[in-house]
Amino acid sequence: MKKVILILGQTATGKSDLAVKIAKKINGEIISADSRQVYKGLDIGTGKITQKEMRGIPHHLLDVVNPKRGFSVAEYQKHAISAMAEIIKRGKIPIICGGTGFYIDTVVNGIILPEVPLNQKLRRQLMTKSAAALFVILKKLDSARAKNIDSKNGVRLIRAIEIAKALGKVPRPKIFPQNYKFIKTGLYLPADKLKKRIEKRVKKMFQDGLLNEIKNLKKAGVSNKRLEKLGFEYFNPTYEKVVSQTLKYAKRQMTWFKRDKKIRWFTSPSSAFAWLQKQLAK
RNA sequence: GCGCCGGUCGUAUAGUGGCAAUUACACGACGCUGUAAACGUCGCGACCUUUUGGUCUUCGUUGGUUCGAGUCCAACCCGGCGCA
């Protein structure tokens, strides 16, 4: 079984830095696991690693799509899995690094996610319906999915119906085989320290020209509505707003990660580094 | 000083005689196998309780009317606007 390193954790805990360090040491390449860093031009606001900080280590799944267009987990998964395979073929070690738990899980757990594009016409139709009505439709189309889905979650119901309509009733496997051993490493900071880090980071964002970045995105044709979707940094951001929202987000990240008991948590990146080396030597 | 409006659970609000009291945000817990910084569910005065349950303390302050007051009345305090 090929080993793959996984570095996850809350925002601003130093994941990218640790990833580069370990990559240098063990001849690795990095696969980003961040739902927003996949977009070109979202650099400052997403805290994307700079060319200089990469120190020559190849990074995958950064800047792969135009922000005008949407991106989905399914696409992420496809790209990440093929990147992983290629890196191993080159005799190197993949390091998945990021804070989007859902993206990470689809890669690590080998969930099957066929690509189904958004169907705007269908969506417009479904949007007017209540969750209860949507649930009835889904039950008819795909009773298996209806069994697991949250019957009150409109957004997910619509997506499930969209998928069921596109794929029909073809039975599909839930999980594909994985030949990787994931070494799960988490970085976390106590609340007060995390807060300071976030404040520092946000201050730097504005200094580095967040507002300018937004202006450029607009110039490139990204609509206001789209910007709002891309995150709170991109829609009328103020220092206070971004700090408080980021804090909130960091908390949510943790509730996701908490569920995976196999993650080994560290406060200090250097002890995480040491532990990772030991794991690879095994 | 006169006139008007207003002071409600962290904030913003609803509530004109039966209310521990609406909604939103924030906050907390949880879920998440398909847009994930999204989305959903639950909780949010205190204490007790197996419960559609009980007790206590709350709507600026003090007093009054009433079986019953956030709601009506009086005085006072604070804020906004208008006239002086």
Automatic annotation (TrEMBL):
Residues binding substrate, per UniProt: 11-16
Residue ranges, annotated region (Interaction with substrate tRNA): 34-37
Pfam families to which the protein is assigned, alphabetical: IPPT
A molecular function (GO) held by this record is: tRNA dimethylallyltransferase activity
| Cofactor entry | Mg(2+)
EC top class named in words: transferase
Protein name stated in the entry: tRNA dimethylallyltransferase
According to its UniProt entry, this protein's organism is Candidatus Nomurabacteria bacterium RIFCSPHIGHO2_01_FULL_40_24b
Upper lineage is:
Bacteria, Candidatus Nomuraibacteriota
Coding gene? miaA
